[in-house]
Amino acid sequence: QVQLVESGGGLVQAGGSLRLSCAASGSILTIDGMGWYRQAPGKQRELVASMSSGGNTEYVDSVKGRFTISRDNDLNTVYLQMNSLKPEDTDVYYCNADGVRERFYFESNTYWGQGTQVTVSS
Prior knowledge:
The chain has 122 residues and is mostly beta strands.
């Protein structure tokens, strides 16, 4: 019922920038948290950045000062501005929506995007 559609990934040189977007669609009432995770092949998925519906943010230490998460609650969309990219940032990035309240559901659900590739060349 709820889908997360990501865009903005691609190939960029070290020091460059990318902006990821993720839009949630479906019978959505509210979304608690939205964020971005990344996962390289053979590695575990890790949180990159997240934002609550109230505007509280969290970042993994390695991206602080370089990445900025933002969110439009009316559009159910989350963004990740990625500046000063490093080769170590190369990963598949996944959008996440937590605490999604849907019409006629009394429990919230979690949804994931399909993943978008970010490749940073040296």
